[in-house]
Amino acid sequence: MKHLRKSLICLILIFLVGVVIPTKTEAAEATTLRITSATYPTVLKQGQSFTVGGIVKSNYKINEVSVVIRSTDLSKLYCKIVVNNPSNPYTLGTAVDNAMKFDTLAIGTYRYMVYAKDASGAAKFILDKTFSVTATGQTSVIAPSTLRVVGATYPSTLKVGASFNLQGTVKCNYAIKQVSCVIRSSDKSQLYYKVIVNNPRNPYEISTEINNAMKFSSLQTGNYRYMIYAKDASGTAKYILDEPFSVTTTGQPVNVGASTLRIVSPTYPTTLELGEGFSVTGIVKSNYKINEVAVVIRSTDLSKLYYKIVVPNPSNPYTIGAAVDNAMKFNALAEGTYRYMIFAKDASGAAKFILDKTFTVKDTASKLAISNPHYPISVVYGTEFKLEGTISSNYNVVSLAFTIIDTSTNVTVRKKNIFQEKKSYTIGTEVNEAMDIAGLPVGSYKYVVAARDESGNRLTLINRTFSVVEGAEYAIWPLSQVYITQGAYDSYSHQTKNAFDCVISPITGAQAFAPFDGRVVAAESTWGTIWFQSDNKVRYADGTCDYMTVIFMHGKNATSLLGRSFKQGESFYVLGGTGPAGPNTYAVHLHIEVYKGRISPAGTIIDASSAWSYRGNVYPNKAFYVKSSITTIMNAYGYAFNKIS
Is the whole-model pTM more than 0.90? Predict the structure, then answer.
């Protein structure tokens, strides 16, 4: 009886196990982890910033997004930020942008990389772009490698036991690091003979050493490949010769019949989001030598060519690899419909399109953003402040939230929600009246603007702290030294100008700082000029109180500062001697003028011919106090300055 009970229990357990454990594993859905609408630099001028963007998406929960700037060999890390468990989709926003300090990078070449993980277990670099930082902001021209072989001889069909005299000259515009010659089976799976010559002379003649090593007379009947591989000092490494040949009993080629020229296992897009990349692959095969493979992206009517790469005399089979994949820049295509096509020729005379696929590019990514924002840094108690900015998207912006939070208590003291069905909203009276900045008591606050569009994208567009203070700021001299080299209404270019020319030692890398809390309201590129205007009335050194607009001239980074706000004492304007001939070609100094009042000449980058509608109407020493704790008077040029501690 006991044995019967045990047997019955075993049968029940076997039945239960059979029920619980599936007999076939369900296939998991493949991850779509990727980045769309990515922005990244290619060439930057030293000291220049760059705004990165992009949207990370996946059909699984996103576990991590990491953004870095590294050296090209990945040995050195410059900037990094890791965002754990972000939203999905995750938009690269202010936190990432602030962490990528492009303006601090030295001259050199770098890699900007975005790495992501999702709940499927996928973990990969979804963006890896090389960029350079140069003194001029222009690409340094590096000559492409000309590594090649000329005058090469190679067999096509040999009789069993016959030898062959190889010839050819390997040439390059760089030093040749290596030449390797091999004989392999036609599918490359078996190596028969090989010789490597390291650091040969340039040009390098195929020598007796190679001829002796390539023992054609010892080969049995069959199909083979004779290949020459080479490397040079530029980093180029490639097969400069890859030719099939056969060994037969008669020395005559074997009839291989009609061409089988084709492509197998190709990948190609069908629908892409605007800015989305795609990796193309495939294997081109033929029973004859392949003479050419050409890969293109064209318009559907074939009238326009977008991208093309031609590979002459490729290996057989030829695997579509990095060279073709890099040449097909799907992520650079505009919205529209295209054709991805592969054309091939072989030694039989066959010439045809072996792939012809139509695909579309659609702009589905949300472009929710704010342009020309104006937000406070400090406000004098009881003073009006005009909040500005236009919130827009390629979808309808359906909800907006404006809040002011008291940072000492974390309590919301101002709030305004707006609902609409429009693609843009311009901040105006409706928001300014609700925020009532003039009515805020003295203290510290945070101004937050958030929005959502019909795509479901939700973003915090502004998240800035500011203070309400009791009295006006003292306008302070914007350099760490007072060293004047030319005064107001002085000689040469200052005969009609109320302006000072100033230097600082050392001048290299020097920056002017904000003399008060304010914003760059206009900029001009020819002379490197900005108009920096106070958010509030400030105290002048002559005892008056009014708004102040300071004109800084000859900076390196003028136009990149347009519309940006800076706190008093924050370094932001790079001295560089910019003039009509470009940065560092004009006398390296800072030209300063002060205009009493608010001018807002254009709110844009303005033309040099109309840049001087407003000029200095106050002597700079009558406008700025010298703050002794941060500025030293080296040469006052005869002018008297008021000091504060």
Answer: no
